[in-house]
Design a protein that fits this description.
Layout: H1 12-26, E1 33-34, E2 37-40, E3 43-46, E4 52-53, H2 61-74, H3 76-95, H4 97-106, H5 113-129, H6 137-150, H7 155-170, H8 180-186, H9 195-222, H10 236-239, H11 256-279, H12 283-300, H13 304-318, H14 320-338, H15 342-356, H16 358-372, H17 379-397, H18 401-415, H19 423-432, H20 436-463
Helix pairs in contact: 1-2, 1-14, 2-14, 3-12, 3-13, 3-14, 4-6, 4-11, 5-7, 5-9, 6-7, 6-19, 7-9, 7-19, 8-17, 9-20, 11-12, 12-13, 14-17, 15-16, 15-17, 16-17, 16-18, 16-20, 17-18, 18-20
Length: about 475
């Protein structure tokens, strides 16, 4: 008797292609429309009340296929930047610099466990805010687990050190090229504008994540049975503390080469931020910076030309899925534009949002992005898919474009730590051997604080007319 195949959620790329087909069908149903626009400073803004119906240009099956190609062409520079970032991180990981840094911290017996958690999570948060520790964070979770168990805690604590640390920064990243770095150009805003506010948001979000991490550490110290790694019948020794040979792997020596490599990473992040804010850098310069980091780190740590090349290409390969998501997401925008129904959809959506007012409308945008991220868990993919809709709606309703970008960033970011469609999250939980349902229940209070922070932030920023310029 044949077993019935279980239903599987399509991959993100498959879902995006399906959405492209749906959008193509809509071009045959939804009336084509257009707005008149005007130049306001450096922004091309739609003029409220100027929507009008125009001749339809529906997209057929061949047009869908061509839209896929056009989506990739349109996002080619971003795709290469994403892949080069992955390549640089892979070389850095291979050098052993991060492992050595964590091992050095763990070997300091005088360091309080809560202080160690603060240092590790802060390091990961800065890397996450710069977009460096996003998908690559999965490779670092085992190091976090080794650190946590060597201190007498469970594997989930190690997950919190690394994953929650990284995403406390990534979710509100002030220099995240794959989220606001994609959203800002679509909104016709300087890349990484609004830097100071987002740094403050990073600090607040980090404090929230750190508080819940330390609270968990104290809880399982007091009652180990409350560990998310505990299963009925287990003894405390089965899930708390290091076991056997795993303790040896944390005693990595920190050489001067490792130190220079880590300083190189910090310098690369600083160069990208300064270049973007002061000199209007785009994806080309960012990709070049990551390339220099990879080459310098590889050669410095004795990988040689061939070894560096191999690791760099392997790192790029790991980012292929993320790169393809961006291409398919851009394909959606291509179809909506070619079918000339984008403005019609914007007009329909702007009617209920305008009745809410700009402050409530900004919060509604956050909720919408929070839900959309279930289908499009990629930050860059979601930015490419939703920002072309959000920008004109923001103009029509009176929401500043910077606030619209922040609503997207909050919605995409915080749900990255919840939805089972987020491959990075599920991979990290699998390594930590924690069931998603148990984790989701634990996460709810933390997520509630983040959502409250989002509502408060968007309300204040829209009320003061924040432009980030």
């Amino acid at each position: 008797m044949e077993k019935k195949k279980k239903f599987q959620i399509p991959t993100t790329c498959a879902l995006l292609f399906m959405l492209m087909i749906v959008c193509a069908v809509l071009t045959w149903i939804v009336p084509a429309g257009a707005y008149e626009t005007e130049k306001v400073g450096n922004l091309n803004k739609v003029i409220a009340g100027t929507y009008h119906v125009i001749d339809s240009t529906p997209v057929g099956p061949w047009g869908v296929l061509m839209a896929v190609m056009a989506g990739f062409y349109k996002s080619a520079k971003l795709i290469f930047m994403i892949m080069f970032c992955g390549g640089a991180v892979a070389v850095l990981e291979k050098s052993g610099s991060i492992n050595a840094a964590f091992g050095r911290l763990a070997s300091n017996k005088k360091l309080n466990a809560h202080v160690l958690a603060l240092l590790i999570m802060a390091f990961m948060s800065v890397g996450g805010a710069a977009g460096v520790f996003a998908n690559p964070v999965v490779a670092l979770v085992p190091i976090g687990i080794i650190l946590a168990t060597s201190l007498g805690y469970d594997a989930f604590t190690g997950f919190l050190f690394v994953y929650m640390g990284a995403y406390s920064g990534f979710n509100v990243g002030w220099a995240n090229a794959t989220t606001i770095g994609v959203a800002h150009p679509i909104a016709e805003l300087p890349i990484f504008s609004g830097f100071e506010v987002r740094v403050l948001l990073n600090i607040i979000n980090f404090a929230i994540c750190y508080f819940f991490t330390v609270r968990y550490m104290k809880t399982i110290r007091k009652d180990p049975m409350k560990s998310l790694n505990y299963e009925e019948g287990m003894s405390v020794a089965d899930f708390m503390g290091a076991k056997g040979e795993t303790t040896e792997t944390i005693h990595a020596s920190m050489s001067w080469k490792h130190m220079v490599s880590l300083l190189g990473l910090v310098a690369a992040i600083a160069v990208i931020v300064i270049g973007s804010i002061k000199f209007s850098w785009s994806y080309d310069q960012m990709a070049a910076t990551f390339f220099v980091l990879a080459v310098g780190c590889g050669l410095l740590n004795g990988m040689g030309v061939n070894g560096t090349t191999k690791e760099f290409i392997n790192g790029c390969a790991k980012m292929t899925n993320a790169a393809f998501i961006v291409g398919f997401a851009n394909g959606i925008g291509v179809i909506l534009s070619q079918g000339q129904i984008l403005n019609t959809i914007v007009n329909w959506l702007s009617i209920p949002i305008s009745s809410m007012g700009s402050v409530m409308g900004a919060n509604f945008m956050f909720i919408a992005n929070l839900l959309i991220n279930f289908l499009i868990p990629s930050g860059s993919g979601q930015a490419a898919a939703v920002m072309p809709l959000m920008v004109p709606i923001a103009d029509l309703v009176g929401i500043t474009r910077q606030v619209a970008v922040q609503a997207f960033q909050f919605g995409d970011g915080f749900s990255n730590c919840l939805y089972p469609t987020a491959g990075t999250l599920m991979g990290a939980l699998a390594i930590a051997k924690v069931d998603w349902a148990r984790y989701a229940k634990w996460l709810m209070p933390l997520l509630g604080c983040q959502i409250a922070m989002s509502f408060a932030t968007l309300t204040i920023l829209q009320a003061i007319g924040w432009t980030g310029l």
